[in-house]
Design goal:
homodimer, 438 residues, alpha/beta, Aspartate Aminotransferase, domain 1, Aspartate Aminotransferase, domain 2, 2 domains, 8-stranded mixed β-sheet, 4-stranded antiparallel β-sheet, 16 strands, globular
Chain lengths: 438, 438
Amino acid sequence: MVNEMSDGQNINTAGIKTPFYEDLFSDRAKNMKASVIRELLKLTQKPEIISFAGGLPNPKAFPVEPITEIVNDLLKNESNRVLQYGSTQGVPELREEISKRLKRKWNIDGDADNILITVGSQEGLELLGRLFLGFKSTLIMEAPTYLGALNAFHAYNPTIVSIPLDDDGLMVDRLEEYLTGAEKHGVMLKFVYVVPTFHNPAGVCMSEARRRKLMELSHEHDFLIVEDDPYGELRYTGDVLPTLKSMDREDRVIYLGTFSKTLVPGFRVAWTCAPKPIINKMEIAKQAIDLCTPPFTQHIAKEYLKRGYLDTHLEKIISLYGNKMRIMNKTMNEIMPKEYIHWTEPEGGMFLWATMNQGMNATEMFQDAISQNVAYVTGQSFFADGEGENCMRLNFSHAEDDKIVEGVHRLAGVVEDWGRKLDSSNEDQVKNEFIQGV
Amino acid sequence: MVNEMSDGQNINTAGIKTPFYEDLFSDRAKNMKASVIRELLKLTQKPEIISFAGGLPNPKAFPVEPITEIVNDLLKNESNRVLQYGSTQGVPELREEISKRLKRKWNIDGDADNILITVGSQEGLELLGRLFLGFKSTLIMEAPTYLGALNAFHAYNPTIVSIPLDDDGLMVDRLEEYLTGAEKHGVMLKFVYVVPTFHNPAGVCMSEARRRKLMELSHEHDFLIVEDDPYGELRYTGDVLPTLKSMDREDRVIYLGTFSKTLVPGFRVAWTCAPKPIINKMEIAKQAIDLCTPPFTQHIAKEYLKRGYLDTHLEKIISLYGNKMRIMNKTMNEIMPKEYIHWTEPEGGMFLWATMNQGMNATEMFQDAISQNVAYVTGQSFFADGEGENCMRLNFSHAEDDKIVEGVHRLAGVVEDWGRKLDSSNEDQVKNEFIQGV
């Protein structure tokens, strides 16, 4: 079929031997590239580096004792069930417990049949891509947006329209402008993807007024809203905002939640709450992807909810992370050169988002940061269109308190260096212009 | 965008109200239907039914004590790590252990970098679909073939060519005929998917001669081979056959293995062993699907291998299932009406495959079987092209020994009834022909 050689290799047009199977990859696979962010993250693994890069929960927030108790009980009393295959939709009692908690905590209506258990919210995003997206479909994402959602949706080749964020979340007036134009051009808008509460990477919350406006727009223009809410439970200060799903009277909101940030990430147990016809199709799609989420870890999560452990544990996490957030913010206020950089001041979640002056490039700066033993995630990773080069995401949940202080000091030094360099090159430019002007 | 109504519903052409989002589904999603087999399986859940339908391991084969020991050790000594996010490729020491075992047990070369951990082998199949298949690609599957593979590959819209099986596995001469023709027509053959050892559903093994021939054909025609081997460890009698992967000198074989049948299914830990460039792309694709397989269950599997528990445990499973297989086979030989039905006599695995006379329909017969409180899986589910209506898959690993005997008796009654019915309708037909002939 191709220029075959006896050793299973081909010679390509450049005369280089390549394995024969390179020709067999789908176009989809040929375009797959390792993400820049993952390559950068590898650099941050060295022990001497203080990393604000990952999005990792703090192991101090892992409830090891209750998990040990639950696992021993399950293995003693229910081993036949918890070690066996389970249904694709997920363990019924877990879905029941989630449904009760959503009602009690977030005023979200939805019974166990409205819930599908997934391998992390990432799988929920993948399934939504599969259900709704294709070559001729459009979706709207915030700019910046969650990197994992970008990856999941990209696989289905849709058109991604980016609408910017500010301190009050998605700029809904910009969305409205877009929608008016798009309708005239026959755009097939599938859904708007938002992280309205403690945004990743931006740390901000969508204001209540904007939430209401977004719901109105979805009514007027008939699109779905995907509300990704991994951090909603992690509020350290300020007033609780209503979830979009709690405002939903017309089955327009698909709500994603997870245990990764409240219990542990290592179980990979998350859920999607959506109208039944959508859950049914997600279930069929999931059947082809992995048959079911591990029943063993689902049963642990179920017992954790059932025994009422989550609420007391959340208090502990909130105190731990809230303190880290305040330490980072306070240190930044004390030491960061504000003439070059500003940042969001979140009320919860795991991240804050720093924006440097135009012309300062966080990707170029990254090597310097690494050599100063401090790491962040470069802003460009979070934009569908390659913007955000002067931005960075800083995680405050994982590092030790004193390391946060030390790391912010190191980072401030790097930012200051690069800011001054830019100043002097701007001065040079002014001089050059002056000389040319003469 | 569509005929919008204030309550989030549309009126379709038949005048029926449908939720507005039905219009937003991708074509892919519009074509998704709940699988017939799953609907049938729901009927088999009643306690009075003796089910040969599922593909479930027997809970008696779950090593609960060693798992309890391991989990307590992990939570005591490594909780920070086993409860945290992990790498997409999988826990390095688990990949190391699998690599060592593959070498020792199956003479398969491949280091930890050649291995990707997946959420069940099902996810491996999904990833291979994503990497290789698209609208213009062709793959070859056995007829019958594994239902989960059909589901995974179907999602990518390839052309599926079915090549029949016999008691010696894939009929490789038929494959050769096909390949000769296909080459002339410019077919882009991506891979041949086989379950060469203790086939699901057919129970048979591909002979060693055919394995060698298949490897030669892959060399001559430059296609990949996907060797799905969930049951290879479960041999109860007969001589061990070499895996295709162990014969692979040219990186042509992608090997899928799993802990679902040897340890427990509830962990959802499986692996793919393949050339590094393929593993790298699978890893990128998996990143978008679920970030990582649960580290918690991966670490349990790792310790299980590391502590050398698997080999002794396999002896126990082999004795348990081997006995069940012999009981089913013996009872079938004693009681099944051989004028209407014959079946494969496997040497391992979890299934045997029964074929009834032409004209006897296992799907039509299913309701009768259920009313006699016995269940199987209908044959058609395992064919890409809707054949196999006179076939059924019988699982022998899950039911209690005495239930196997009782269930086979019940099934024999149903088969005999339907066989006689067919005989008499054939007689009627002959009479009618005779009368018409007069």
